[in-house]
Write a structure and sequence with these properties.
253 residues, alpha/beta, 8-stranded parallel barrel, 15% strand, binds 2-phosphoglycolic acid
């Protein structure tokens, strides 16, 4: 089945409202009319509303970087899925390795967040990936399998169309060290088979993104792999020119 490639910019804790607006002004003309690729921008929570307004009328969608699994209540500092929908989000990243490592998020938390998003009509981008230590111990596939199993708990085939998975080897995130296309494809193929077993033919519609130092000069080779359906891009998404270049290579792949 052919899946429309998805390129998502993960800005992490970068950009003020003014900087997010300036990005949109520089970026949108560069991707206007770009067919065959879906583009998503995930700014910090403070810039969601302003960026959503700047993207209105374009084909570029808005994403959050996190969500709380509860609908409302006494959760100081947290934001609910309905609040993200309220400011125009279509997607939210969940289970990014920085959240798992720095904020103690477990697979059960990630799954609860994904379910809350789906129940609200938002699309989760569920992240997973092995550390360097796990790769060197030859545990990559078993670690990824356990994360998939736990982070997708309670999701059903009916959710598949709205679900996105991002494979991000932790050793490649923000390090400039990218997985080779063949190394990434090996894990992507494994994830694709897992999704088929879990969701049946509905799993075919789930896009599996690669993340970890994707940039203009390596995006085309990664995206040419049969089971790499897009990218989750950190550092190279902070400048309109470089992210537009990545998006253009996806449109060509
Ligand atoms: P990077 O980040 O592109 O800067 O490696 C990717 C991510 O963490 O999503």
């Amino acid at each position: 089945m052919s899946r429309i490639p998805l390129l998502a910019a993960n800005w992490k804790m970068h950009k003020t409202v003014a900087e997010a607006r300036a990005f949109a002004a520089g970026f949108l003309p560069q991707v206007a009319g770009l067919a065959g690729v879906e583009i998503v921008l995930a700014p910090p929570a403070t810039a969601l509303q302003a960026l959503g307004e700047a993207l209105a009328g374009s084909a570029v969608a808005l994403s959050a970087q996190n969500v709380n699994a509860e609908a409302s209540g006494a959760f100081t500092g947290e934001v609910a899925a309905a609040m993200l929908a309220d400011v125009g989000c279509r997607y939210a990243i969940v289970g990014h390795s920085e959240r798992r490592t720095l904020y103690g998020e477990r697979d059960t938390d990630v799954a609860a967040k994904a379910r809350a998003l789906l129940a609200t009509g938002l699309r989760p981008i569920v992240c997973l990936g092995e550390t360097l230590e796990e790769r060197e111990a030859d545990r990559t596939l078993s670690v990824c399998e356990a994360q998939l199993d736990g982070s997708l708990a309670g999701l059903e085939a009916g959710h598949a169309e709205d679900l996105v998975v991002a494979y991000e080897p932790v050793w490649a995130i923000g390090t400039g060290r990218t997985a080779t296309p063949e190394t990434a494809q090996e894990v992507h193929g494994f994830i694709r088979r897992f999704l088929g077993q879990r969701f049946g033919s509905a799993g075919d519609s789930i896009r599996v993104l690669y993340g970890g130092s994707m940039k203009p000069d390596n995006a085309a080779d990664l995206l040419a792999q049969p089971d790499i359906d897009g990218g989750l891009v950190g550092g190279a998404s902070l400048e309109p020119e470089s992210f537009a270049m990545v998006c253009r290579s996806a449109a060509k792949a």
